[in-house]
Q: What sequence folds into this?
């Protein structure tokens, strides 16, 4: 009976594994090795599937959310922007440091897109130190706005009110 189980079990394996039916005394060892091999391969395949596919899906979903956020900023649609943030249970502070629209932060993009409502909401919602630390190629936000011609923008005026006077570096 033991030999029969061993023969049936080994005949179900692919031939390229190189396992053959061994003498009667070694059947248990062979079953153990076959079981170990199949579980090992199954485990590796499962880890690969779990590792690769959800990561790609999450990244694609994150990129889609970022694109939607940038689109709503460019269209100055405060209601839809709030809906996206709430629907995905996101925090504006986390988004502000991670989302870039055409290489700009969300506030800089609102300035370039002249999205006053969204820009003012971002200015009100973000901590002043986060706005002060916002830089474009190493240049602070207010200096960037002055040098690119956005110094008189209503959003930049709201930023100045929010963060107070900015001292020049020595």
A:
């Amino acid at each position: 009976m033991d030999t029969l189980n061993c023969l049936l079990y080994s005949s179900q394996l692919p031939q390229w594994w190189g396992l053959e039916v061994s003498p009667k005394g070694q059947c248990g060892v062979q079953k153990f090795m076959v079981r170990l091999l199949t579980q090992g391969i199954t485990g590796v395949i499962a880890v690969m599937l779990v590792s690769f596919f959800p990561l790609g899906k999450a990244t694609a979903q994150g990129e889609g959310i970022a694109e939607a956020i940038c689109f709503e900023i460019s269209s100055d649609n405060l209601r839809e922007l709030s809906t996206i943030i709430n629907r995905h249970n996101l925090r504006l502070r986390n988004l502000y440091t991670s989302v870039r629209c055409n290489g700009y932060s969300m506030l800089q993009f609102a300035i370039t897109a002249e999205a006053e409502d969204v820009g003012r909401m971002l200015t009100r919602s973000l901590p002043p130190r986060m706005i002060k630390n916002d830089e474009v190629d190493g240049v602070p936000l207010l200096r960037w706005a002055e040098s690119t011609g956005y110094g008189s923008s209503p959003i930049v005026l709201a930023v100045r009110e929010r963060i107070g006077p900015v001292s020049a570096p020595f």
